[in-house]
TrEMBL record:
InterPro entries: ROS/MUCR_sf, ROS_MUCR. This is MucR family transcriptional regulator. Pfam families: ROS_MUCR (PF05443). Belongs to the ros/MucR family. Residues 135-172 are annotated as: Disordered. It comes from Methylobacterium longum. It comes from the Bacteria.
Length: 172
């Protein structure tokens, strides 16, 4: 039995030492904020320790936001992302960069279906800009113009075509 215990001990990996080596190699090539260091170490250690278990990992649980967090994330000038906590005027590019659509983002964090993807002030600013340059006015301006050409008579005389007698002779 002593041989089997020694074999198991030889196969046992020091996850703390391995974690330290991996994190130090990562930090030497990548910029990491000091506040994120603890999370990086713990997540690396958990991932390494999880490799040794043969159990099937459970589906990742979604981080559901509370109603208070949802209310705080919506401000007039920006939307606070639940992914990184930073403010954004529009979430489209941010979510695409993280491999999500707005629907997947809403589902992942338990957000309501009417959760905005653009800040209110930014939407109002863009709408005002569109109105000022005349976007959306094509139909109202096109209807009166369509009626005008039928009423006006062209000053140029019509171009003369072939005489009708020539057509009748050709057909006979």
């Amino acid at each position: 039995m002593d041989e089997s215990v020694e074999t198991i001990e030889a196969q046992a990996v020091d996850y703390v030492e391995l974690t330290a080596e991996l994190v130090s190699a990562y930090v030497s090539k990548n910029a990491v904020r000091p506040g994120d260091m603890a999370e990086l170490i713990s997540s690396t250690h958990a991932a390494l320790a999880g490799l040794g278990t043969s159990a099937v990992p459970a589906a990742p649980t979604a981080d559901k936001a509370t109603p208070a967090q949802i209310r705080k994330s919506i401000t007039p000038d920006a939307l606070i992302s639940f992914i990184d906590g930073k403010p954004y005027k529009t979430l489209k590019r941010h979510l695409t960069g993280n491999g999500l659509t707005i629907e997947e983002y809403r589902e992942r964090f338990g957000l309501p279906r009417d959760y905005p993807s653009t800040a209110a002030n930014y939407s109002a600013q863009r709408a005002e800009l569109a109105r000022s340059i005349g976007l959306g006015q094509l139909r109202t301006k096109a209807a009166p113009k369509a009626a005008q050409p039928a009423e006006t008579i062209s000053e140029k005389p019509k171009r003369a075509g072939r005489p009708r007698k020539a057509k009748e002779v050709a057909e006979a």
